[in-house]
Design goal:
The chain contains 13 helices and 26 strands. With about 475 residues, it is α/β, with parallel strands linked by helices. It has two domains: about 250 residues, ANL, N-terminal domain (Rossmann fold, 3-Layer(aba) Sandwich); about 170 residues, Rossmann fold (3-Layer(aba) Sandwich), CATH 3.40.50.980. It has a nine-stranded mixed beta sheet, sandwiched between helices. It has an eight-stranded mixed beta sheet with strand order 10-9-8-6-7-11-12-22, sandwiched between helices. It has a five-stranded antiparallel beta sheet with strand order 1-20-21-23-24, with no helix packed on it. Helix 11 links the parallel strand 15 and strand 16. The longest helix has 17 residues. The C terminus is likely disordered.
Length: about 475
């Protein structure tokens, strides 16, 4: 029996074969960066209001890439294909060090900032990282990790680049460095050494080289390094652009951690690609969330369920003008209608009649780079609970047996499988896990039980396994 393969109702997009940096920053005319005016604001530090234009982001990223290759301490550790580990909360420096590392041809492994030294050590060793880019407040954890790995103090300090709270490099306020940062190579040092003429290219087959290593954990065993390629990410930015999103160029609020593939893809790559500025908040705090929406007139936010719970219950909601916030997309477990209605009722009670407050959700996993579905805003109120329709260029199956030989009938339950150019290369150094999750013809088995209705809307109804773990203020299951 032939498999029942579903495609997207949206037209496929061409698959680009280039570096992620090239895709995001390639100019389409004079005085533009990535197809938008170079003078447009790209990222803003929420606390200080310090902003970076698109031109500054490109130049600073290429400066960081040059500094990594030129500085005598970092030069031996940053050859093309080497891995660097990012261990920092959200900050204005994040896009610079991320894009700069990609421009230098490096692989980036992104670590949860709540990790202990032991957890960090596993990822550092498993990913074969050679250098740690860390926020100064995390230096103690990093130094302890190196000690546990058998490095001397001097050796450890040669493998750290520190990202300070000081924002003078971006035209922002000065902040005194912590004592722990003294003598370490800093972001500022690397930015001051020059500018890379052009990024490392990954044309043709090289686009299948790994660019990110995010770690996906299940219920047992150690986390697995998910090999995400340049092509995975360049395809995703085009896929999301083709999907209906709210109009306008008001800023987004970036509260979800950038160390998670959801944060990287939806708060760094996607907004930059479409020319929308992102206000970067270090971590989620209900009071600051509300204050930043009021201050920056934020229209759109990517969220997780704890944020909606806060909007439903936290007293800060009554102290700020949140009328600009019209759209929210949740990347967590299927949203319950009661919670959505509670938040909408609370926010709309303070607005003019006819105001917009739409809450939708998407779906995906680290292994799918991450997004595969999103429920369009124009139907989100009537289809609460659905993850939406399949993104273009992807294929899906709903499999009824463990061997993948029998597909569920339409409207029946089965395990959700995906195939397409956003599916990971595999699990780093773990062929057994890769073979368990990817078939020989590269169908990825999600472990989630789904139903697809006649209109092509999908619903997650159960799980065969625990999904990604992700820390906002505590561990939570995240599926996008």
């Amino acid at each position: 029996m032939s498999p029942r393969i579903y495609t997207s109702p949206f037209p496929d997009v061409p698959v680009d074969h280039c570096s992620l940096f090239t895709k995001l920053f390639r100019s389409r005319g004079p005085n533009d960066v990535g197809g938008h005016p170079e003078s447009w604001t790209a990222y803003v530090d929420a606390a200080s209001g310090t902003g970076l234009t698109r031109a500054q982001v490109k130049t600073l990223s290429l400066s960081f890439a040059y500094g990594l290759r030129d500085h005598p301490t970092t030069r031996p550790l940053t050859k093309r294909g080497d891995t660097v580990l990012l261990f920092s909360p959200n900050s204005l420096a994040w896009p610079i060090v991320l894009y700069g590392s990609v421009a230098a041809g490096l692989r980036c492994t992104l670590a949860n900032t709540a990790y202990t030294s032991h957890e960090l050590g596993f990822q550092y060793k498993d990913s074969a990282a050679k250098l740690v880019l860390t926020y100064e407040e995390n230096i103690g954890v990093v130094m302890k990790m190196f000690e546990e790995q058998g490095y001397s103090n001097a050796e450890a300090r040669q493998r750290i680049v520190v990202l300070r709270r000081d924002l003078r490099w971006a035209g922002g306020p000065a902040v005194s460095a912590l004592p722990e940062a003294a003598g370490l190579v800093s972001l500022e040092e690397l930015l001051a050494r020059g500018v890379l003429d052009r990024e490392e290219t990954f044309e043709g087959e090289a686009a299948h080289e790994t660019v990110y290593l995010c770690y996906s954990s299940g219920t047992t065993g150690n986390p697995k390094g998910v090999e995400t390629t340049h092509q995975n990410m360049t395809t995703l930015v085009d896929i999301i652009v083709k999907f209906p999103l709210p109009p306008g160029d008001a800023p987004m609020l970036g509260i979800l951690p950038f160390y998670h593939i959801y944060g990287v893809a939806n708060l760094l790559h996607h907004p930059f690609y479409i020319g929308v500025p992102v206000v970067i908040q270090t971590r989620f705090d209900p009071e600051q969330f509300c204050a930043n929406i009021q201050k920056y007139k934020v229209a759109f936010a990517c969220i997780v369920p704890p944020v909606l719970v806060a909007l439903a219950r936290h007293p800060a909601v009554d102290s700020y003008d949140l009328s600009s916030l019209q759209y929210m997309c949740s990347g967590a477990a299927p949203l319950g209608a009661d919670l959505v209605k509670m938040v909408q009722a609370r926010l709309l009670s303070k607005r003019k009649h006819g105001s917009t407050c739409l809450i939708t959700q998407g779906y995906g996993l680290t292994e799918t780079s991450p997004s595969t579905h999103m429920l369009a805003f124009d139907v989100c109120d009537e289809r609460v609970g659905s993850i939406g329709q399949l993104f273009p260029t992807l294929k899906a199956r709903i499999v009824a047996d463990d061997d993948g030989l029998v597909d569920a009938e339409e409207g029946e339950r089965g395990e959700l499988w995906f195939q397409g150019p956003t599916i990971m290369k595999g699990y780093l150094g773990n062929p057994t896990a890769t073979k368990h999750s990817l078939t020989s013809d590269r169908w990825f088995k999600t472990g989630d039980i789904a139903i697809r209705d006649k209109e092509g809307y999908y619903y997650i109804v159960d799980r065969k396994k625990e999904l990604i773990k992700y820390k906002v203020s505590k561990r939570a299951k995240v599926i996008a």
